[in-house]
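Continuing from the previous page of notes. For each protein in this section, the sequence appears first, followed by its structure tokens. Read the first protein now.
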Amino acid sequence: MKQKNYILVIISILFLLVISGCSSKKADLSDVKESSGNIVIKGHNFRGLHQGNGTAKDPDYKYSMYFGKDGNFVQDIISSKGFAGRFTERGTYNIAKNGDITMNIASVTKERFTSDSSLSRGIAPKSIVQREGSTLNAAEDHPIKINNKKTYLLGTVNNVKLYPTDAKTVNYKKHYQSEMKKYDNTYNKFSGHGFTSNGMDTPMNGIAFKGNKFIWRYGYLGRNTDKDNAVMAVFEGTYSYSSSDHILTLNVSDQSKSYYGNLMSLNGFKYKKSGSSLAGNNLKLRYRNNALNLVNSSFKSWGMKDEYPEDASQSQPKYDDYLNSYSVATFDSQMEKDDENNSPVKKAFPTKEDFADWVTDYYLSDDKEPDFKVLSVSEGGKVSVRDSLDDEQTETPVVYSLDYSITSDDSVPDVSRTICITSDGSIYSGHFNTLDEDLIQAYADYNG
């Protein structure tokens, strides 16, 4: 008797599970309309379900389809449980005498999502591609048959039963524009923009974006302002942005070692010591008031302001420029350990002030430039120089550089003039920073 009751309980549970499963499936098609026969196709919407086996090759599909009175159709297919994606198609169709339908796809929008949850919540797709014409793939670029079974339509791809419904299928153009806007706001929001830190010691800290890619030339000087207390590194990768919490997530795919030393010397690819990479797989920054600030990180950074002007072509820094000069591969390969004891320029001029005094003596002697005066002098860094006026400018690391004036009236501003010396003793001067053979010879004589 006990065994009989036990069997009855099991049968009851199985029956409830079957009923529950059927109810779930029916709920997904709650808005379909049963037809007694000879369904109307033109100007009507249809829905159907394909329940797969939960794999990427056979996920679940929710079909929604609209056949316009003008001979155009829209089909929207939402995929889940194995593949989080969406395929929205448009094209033309015709109806045979027996009621069967032939569809020809003209354009397809394919979206992929990070998860089924992201798709269902309307989160931006992680990729979106539109194909049309010659770019359609083999599965799309051929006639698609749909059989008319009088009370429903039968898709020949997954044998999906499509029933009439009052639920409207998405508008192809509006859906594509809406999804692209979400995608751009998440992955392309900062494309063409460049952010840099403001301040005398901070220009080496900047990040530039292009599309969904970024490159960050990271530089920082700690509270202890000792001249060798700076660090520099480069991070590259892709990014995404959440407008709800204003968090920019940098997905770091490549990064340099960390280099320590004088901030200006680091900018000139000279370092005192190197260490391991600073960042993990991702970095988070908060975007507010056109500025980025690093959050929840093991290292610190200055805030960076958006340098995007009204004329976007003038935005600084630029992604391509950074990539050419500061890509991880370029940055690591150009960094050299700074051994001041073996530098002939450092032996001749141990400090930047020594260099400035020598240049001043050179111009004031024999009245070469009687009104010569040094305005500022710096150590390390890079300067745009050229061998002659006919040559192109190149960013070149220098040991020292100074700005000077030769006007006799301090109230009248002089044009920008610079003198700089590289580690091999090359000296560039003037407004256009060209090679100065006279100063090079004077340096050679001074250095004996």
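Done with the first. The second protein uses the same format. Note its length before scrolling.
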Amino acid sequence: MNRLLATAVAASLLLSSSFSVFALETNKISPEAQSITRESVKKPHRKFYRCNVEKWVEQGIITQEQADKWKMFNKKYEEKIKQEKDKIRKMTKEERRAYFEQKKLEKRNYFDELVKEKIITQEQADKIKEKILESHKNKVKR
């Protein structure tokens, strides 16, 4: 009986050590795989209002002067959003809820603001929206 017990213990130790060696060898990561991080694979997040205005100039939808004004508008728009986020962070939960309820009613549109600031015309805004929608449809079809 003692020999049987000793044999079983020895066999289990032998098997467990071989499994741990196998696990150590299969968990090795190649140097190429180590260089790939989540951040390097991650695509940059683009906001809708960061349109490639140069693309619209090349297509003849807007002029270079309008593109320059648009870029300046984007800088101001981003600053405005930063300030708004800071303001929201300082609010209580109830204040935030009321603030977002009010924002829902406003329904501002980025392109409407561009037209209101007289950077582009309504026709140009409609053309650009149409082009953006076309590009989104083409991406979905792939």
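What the second structure shows: Residues 39-46 have pLDDT under 50 and may be disordered. The first helix runs from residue 2 to 26. We return to this in next week's lecture.
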